[in-house]
TrEMBL record:
This is SRPBCC domain-containing protein. Residues 27-144 form the Activator of Hsp90 ATPase homologue 1/2-like C-terminal domain. Belongs to the AHA1 family. It comes from Streptomyces violaceus. It comes from the Bacteria. SUPFAM superfamilies: Bet v1-like (SSF55961). InterPro entries: ASHA1/2-like_C, START-like_dom_sf. The lineage of its organism: Bacteria, Bacillati, Actinomycetota, Actinomycetes, Kitasatosporales. It holds the Pfam family AHSA1.
Length: 169
């Protein structure tokens, strides 16, 4: 079961633009938490940690997708293992935004992931982020299930872009 949505796009306040994703994953909240926070697991579905180790009140740096050494600087705002993670998100060339993750167990032993990425500056595209988070959580789901992730994540992202763009109109 997966659904994604965008909200507050096109409002007068560009900082109110938000990308949201609601997804059920085939693993316990503890397993999902570890996939989001352990440096040896992040490269399997997102990308490597270049500096620091995710943890309470710390800053760490992730490798971005760009071809020019892009990075993502994250500062942990809330660290509640297997329940809630909040980080500032500063991608190369973009203003700081905030990534919010909430995890809750499902009746079948899985995890409901509510992802909300808020506060985009004018240089960031929430549609791009929504499609990207959908693509990354496809990879996360495969990682949690012990299967290979997407062979071509760029193709998956391009497939999702028009879907999210249409929902933002």
């Amino acid at each position: 079961m997966m659904s994604g949505s965008l909200s507050a796009l096109g409002t007068a306040s560009r900082t109110a633009r938000t990308a949201k994703l609601d997804r059920v994953l085939p693993a316990t909240p503890d397993e999902v938490w570890r996939a989001w926070t352990e440096p040896d697991r992040l490269p399997h579905w997102f990308g490597p940690v270049l500096k620091g180790i995710p943890g309470p009140d710390v800053e760490y740096v992730l490798e971005g997708r760009g071809e020019h050494g892009d990075t993502i600087v994250c500062r942990v705002l809330a660290w509640e293992p297997a329940i809630r993670l909040r980080v500032t998100w500063r991608y190369t060339g973009e203003a700081e935004s905030e990534l919010r993750l909430d995890l809750s167990p499902t009746d079948d032993g899985g995890t409901r992931l509510l992802l909300e990425h808020v506060g985009f500056g004018p240089e960031a595209d929430p549609v791009d982020y929504a499609a990207g988070w959908h693509m990354y959580t496809d990879n996360l789901e495969a990682h949690l299930a012990g299967t290979p992730g997407l062979a071509d994540s760029d193709a998956r992202w391009m497939e999702l872009m028009p879907v999210y763009a249409a929902s933002a109109d």
